[in-house]
Design goal:
Layout: H1 6-26, H2 30-67, H3 74-86, H4 91-98, H5 102-114, E1 118-123, E2 126-134, H6 136-158, H7 162-184, E3 187-189, E4 196-198, H8 208-212
């Protein structure tokens, strides 16, 4: 049998080499596989810990709300706290934050306004819109609501020993840092309306030639 021409042989060898290289690239090293598995495990553990955290905090909040002597319905009390965090804010922004419709939020805000707990002012950026803020009475009411909940939780904390209280303080410090750094940190407050806006992206770096000059 005659041998293949040299040109055909030259064409076949690169193709076979590419196939071998592709097969090798598809196979991860044992170290890479272990790193990928560890990353997946860490992500799953973090998600589980986050779910447990939300469950415990929500359960404690519901328990305190049920047993506290509140001067407002829980829904309005929650809205007061939401307004304090986002004020001054439009009705639409509050509705989005509370996952409800704008008409529903309008009704809730009107109830708070009738009680003298919030005020409505014109939005300087849009004359057709209004901004909602707490009044002095609203801030005092919110402080009273928090005091009422704290009074319910106080006996539980008082029953803890010194070690448990220390662990609780440490956990609170971690949670506060989590909220301040990861939730509030990536957001800034616009100077005029104080509505939360994402941080602007950093300016692009100049090309190397421009930096060298």
């Amino acid at each position: 049998m005659s041998a293949l021409p040299a040109a055909a042989t030259d064409r076949r060898e690169p193709l076979e080499g590419a196939k071998r290289g592709g097969a090798q690239s598809d196979q991860q090293s044992p170290a890479a596989e272990r790193n990928a598995a560890q990353a997946g495990h860490d992500s799953s553990a973090a998600a589980e810990l986050g779910a447990d955290l939300l469950r415990v905090v929500a359960r404690l909040h519901r328990w305190a709300t049920r047993h506290a002597d509140l001067s407002l319905p829980p829904g309005l009390a929650r809205l007061l706290a939401q307004i304090e965090e986002l004020e001054p804010s439009r009705i639409g922004d509050l509705a989005k934050a509370d996952h409800c419709s704008q008409p529903t939020m309008t009704t809730q805000v009107q109830r708070l306004k009738a009680l003298g707990l919030v005020s409505r002012t014109s939005d300087p950026d849009d004359g057709r819109a209004v901004l909602i803020t707490l009044t002095g009475a609203g801030r005092a009411q919110l402080a009273d609501l928090r005091t009422a909940r704290a009074a319910v939780v106080a006996p539980l904390v008082d029953a803890l020993d010194a070690d448990d209280r220390g662990q609780l303080r440490a956990a609170l410090a971690v949670l506060s840092r989590l909220i301040d750094d990861e939730v509030a940190g990536p957001m800034r407050v616009d100077g005029r309306t104080r509505r939360l806006q994402p941080h602007p992206p950093p300016p692009p770096k100049p090309p190397m030639s421009a930096r060298a000059e």
